[in-house]
């Protein structure tokens, strides 16, 4: 669209338009002014090398704006002036992708890439594969549709099939052209995938603006980009300085006149996107033959990732030849011709400033390290759990230490080690309290455990945490309640325990700031709706120690009413799937406490479901078979995999024992795998094995 051969011509036209008087602008020459403005947008937002000053661009823009204001019939949809949002978006409409946006299979080491290469060669029948390697941008995914060179739709990823139509907001991203000359390649309609980003500098400036306004800063550029895309005021989106990298063509429809010049390679498509004025990873991309060359390039690129102006979390490897891509095809979850290589955990150094001790719903006291703010993988980290007293001793942590931290898998921050060689004598020991930091009761460390506990079940911290757990998504799923409202209502005296949640009145809520008629109505309706949640959610919501979602289902399927559990002995409980000695002791202890029985009777009186849920076994060979998942699954979400097994009659366990039939192992499997290897009756299978089993 704009290359070295026409820069001089366009700069000459720029000078011409700068000198032109407004009265000489007509419907016959206005398209040339629009073309000049698109060229300077491209130089500024795509190439990052403007050829005129901002003021000079603004003056040209005002010439176009004045003409269109005087001649509204001559305004075109792809005019540079049409980026400006007109009013608020009430609701985002849903739009279907022309081709589903599938996830990519993930890899974390060279061995995974070698295995990927082996499969590609086997399926394609080729001895050597040419790959295209490009950065894996850490932003918000979008797809764009152009028809007859015009941008007609911008859509979020959504569920991969259908996303939100955010076209007005996409118009505000200056690196996305409203008009792109795809017709020169014979293309009538095209769907393009990309990632919307906020670069590091813009993110830092935006966060500083929030701080100056007394607002909390955002955690990372990805959240900033994703949140901005879904704003209902396009004019605000325009001020956020988002940019977009377009990296994949998913659909092409050509004109029927035989003029098609559609590229035959992925790298060719990236060159094409750049040629029509889009920001594609053309400069960062490499085409390489053989997986060894790919691995070498990835290692070199990872070493220099900090120098990039934007965040990336890995590299994407794609078979370059489009015909080979079509031959390889895809699964229901991911293409067989592409894989994402995730970079190693990001690390940084910081200083351990102090330790706070927090009390959870089971009374566990958890030390939380407060550290000097550190940027790790694009996220500002100021707090890190240090688990328990043993962990502190094992890591040899002291207040005042310089520490090495990392985000494992670019998600959970943790302390790698203390840099003890930097100590200067000013460091002090971390002293674990002997009394509860909330209620002052003496802490107890049960035999065989690493955790100190407050055993006062009326401890305010535990009461609040139990209510937070009870209303949470995986428990009673009371919409619009959440942690913040639990704490607010508790502080206001509106709730004091779990049953009191079902006694909240509109009058009580209306007295609180921020609770108008609609929010009060919605919350009360959500509380009422939660009474229909099945028994296993009620059991899980009670927060019985060691009773997770899986065990809660087991219990609900084994009783007529919840009160039956009060009459079962530890031995009877252990006869149930997934209930071992510790779990049985915890359940028995809970149901021998009269306060807990009183709470359940109050919940029953409030109308909650207390009847059991007999399991309907599917008529398949998996009826009665037990499953457990460990490690990171690449093709299925853990919850989806568990639901799939259950739909075929299987039962999910929460731990390794002789009752387990199948352990499904994903990446980075840990202690469960090691334990399972010692029990000969357990079948250890891969995620692919599991999927094949379900298909059969």
From TrEMBL:
Family classification: Belongs to the NAD-dependent DNA ligase family. LigA subfamily.
Keyword Metal-binding belongs to the record: yes
Pfam families reported in the protein's UniProt record: BRCT (PF00533), DNA_ligase_aden (PF01653), DNA_ligase_ZBD (PF03119), HHH_2 (PF12826), OB_DNA_ligase (PF03120)
Cofactor(s) required, per the database record: Mg(2+); Mn(2+)
Classification via PROSITE patterns: BRCT (PS50172)
Name this polypeptide is given: DNA ligase
Catalytic activity field: NAD(+) + (deoxyribonucleotide)n-3'-hydroxyl + 5'-phospho-(deoxyribonucleotide)m = (deoxyribonucleotide)n+m + AMP + beta-nicotinamide D-nucleotide
Residues annotated as binding NAD(+): 54-58, 103-104, 134, 157, 195, 318, 342
Location of the active site: 136
